[in-house]
Task: inverse folding
């Protein structure tokens, strides 16, 4: 499935007041909009993913999966700053004719949502039957459900939060410190900051998994090994893997966008903002998640009016939302069959 491009030729004003003169948004669609126009499933992707949800969320999205193109019209769009088809720091700056690099304007989760609202309008999508996302994707989905309360019917928030925590911001800042320590990051070249990005990804991995995950998957087979450990090799491999498909500038700005997430900003506080959500909402937390601890999802559950909660006991930590697709399918199916009438309910825990 090839990525399509939506071009907005007007002035795109960011929450900060800065402006982009026209933007492009890369997106993928699967399936067909039905006659009643009530089969739209909109996916908001996480930090370094892309709009090809059939590629990175297999088991939940695909021809034979719960969300399939025979039943649903599935849409996933690249976020602002992503290098996969949407305007980003490596795009040409109209003012200079050269890539933006660090001159790209900082943006927020709300700006990402604003771009996707424009795409939805362009596609003639007045109602979204199901809006879902995990991590940064969940942050977008939650913001959208507050900004356009009547457009979203069902909301599914996975391993996400109402505002990014000091803990999460500290992880992101540590990654940015690693990137900025790479002198090439300031050089203004396409591959600038590559070594720093590799180190940043290594830091991030520690928050995506946990002690138990590493203890089992990276355990040595022998007590006699003094160096060249599996865990070290794994960190290097995963860091380089991201370098091969991403860039340090997009990562830098996307991490800042994640830090900006706070639904209470300008709305009288977080609790009041969550009370604005009209959509039937399913909140899913992962018991072993150290980056977005399950207390954050329980908070969402307590403060969103028509909400249900489910807990996944995953071995994989935060990354469990991408891996535990069988359990996700079970709990999402259960939720969609449940009648939520203004009262919070708790779904059975998924062991």
Result:
């Amino acid at each position: 499935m090839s990525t399509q491009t939506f071009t907005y030729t007007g002035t795109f004003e960011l929450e900060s007041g800065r402006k982009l003169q026209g933007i492009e948004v890369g997106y993928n669609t699967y399936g067909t909009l039905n006659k009643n126009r009530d089969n739209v499933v909109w996916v908001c992707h996480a930090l370094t993913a892309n709009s090809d949800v059939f590629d990175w969320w297999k088991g939940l999205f695909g021809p034979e999966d719960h969300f399939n193109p025979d039943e649903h019209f599935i849409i996933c769009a690249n976020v602002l700053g992503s290098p996969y088809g949407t305007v980003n720091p490596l795009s040409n700056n109209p003012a200079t004719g050269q890539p933006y690099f660090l001159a790209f304007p900082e943006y927020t989760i709300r700006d990402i949502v604003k771009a996707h609202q424009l795409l939805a309008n362009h596609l003639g999508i007045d109602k979204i039957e199901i809006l879902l996302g995990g991590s940064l994707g969940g942050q977008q989905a939650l913001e959208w459900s507050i900004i356009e309360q009547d457009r979203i019917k069902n909301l599914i928030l996975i391993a996400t939060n109402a505002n990014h925590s000091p803990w999460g911001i500290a992880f992101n800042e540590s990654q940015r410190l690693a990137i900025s320590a790479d002198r090439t990051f300031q050089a203004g070249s396409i591959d600038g900051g590559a070594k720093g990005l590799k180190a940043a990804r290594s830091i991030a991995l520690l928050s995506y998994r946990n002690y138990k995950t590493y203890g089992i998957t990276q355990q040595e087979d022998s007590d006699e090994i003094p160096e060249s450990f599996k865990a070290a090799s794994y960190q290097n491999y995963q860091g380089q893997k991201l370098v091969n498909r991403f860039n340090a500038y997009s990562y830098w700005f996307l991490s800042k966008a994640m830090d900006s997430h706070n639904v209470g900003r300008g709305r009288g506080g977080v609790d009041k903002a969550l009370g604005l959500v009209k959509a039937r909402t399913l909140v899913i937390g992962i018991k072993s998640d150290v980056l977005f601890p399950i207390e954050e999802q329980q908070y969402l559950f307590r403060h969103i009016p028509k909400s249900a909660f489910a807990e996944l006991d995953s071995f994989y930590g935060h990354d469990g939302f991408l891996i535990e697709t069988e359990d996700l399918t079970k709990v999402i199916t259960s939720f969609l069959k449940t009648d939520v009438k203004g009262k919070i309910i708790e779904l059975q825990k998924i062991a």
